[in-house]
Amino acid sequence: MKKFALALMAVVLFIACKKEDHGDANLHIKGNIKGLSQGKLYIQKVVDTSFVSMDTIVINDNKGFESHLKIDGPQMLYLVLDRGETSSLDNVLPFFAEPGNMTIESSNEEFFKRAKITGSKNQKVYEDFLKIKSRFTDDNLDLEKQGLLAAQYGNVKKLDSVEAKQLKLEERKYLYTLNFAVQHADLEVAPYLLLTETQKINTVYLDTLQKKMTPKVAKSLYGKMLSELIAQRKKAAAAQ
Known about the structure:
By secondary structure, the chain is α+β, with helices and mostly antiparallel strands.
């Protein structure tokens, strides 16, 4: 009986020590970058307008990586890959982190494209939004090509038509983003999308989401930022 009690105490102490190793971390990230045998991974966040590293992970073999972080609620983080031998543009992976356990799997060859991220409701919704956003991006690229040809041949009428279509496309994108955010007003990704994807949208539309946000989202990082933006705009409008 004594041996059992001692063994049980040892296990409890071991678990306690393991917890202390990570301090007050509330986000556990694990994953693997297939094909990456040497390099560094940086987990970064944006503070004001600058990227700040939260963790640096050295990769010396093909094994996975792991990180324990403390975050103040759901927010966008960035996994940055330093291959040590290339200046590839495919080296930054944004992901919407939230407290709990997350997994990130990707490839050294196509770091961004092949990324698979699990463990975050906000990330799943963000990925759903990006699928639709890509259609708006493709449509805008087509219009830009038409505009370049029109400018090259001095076709002013065609150029004006293309510009008008681009404005309408931007309006459609803004309205889609607003509706998408309102439909997910119970998640922190909702105010984030309006802050990053609809810079020119009318304040009235921002108010729409603000009124729909749950108290939890309103108190989040991006919820507060959205409320501050609305207050600043209204103050500026009143001063005119």
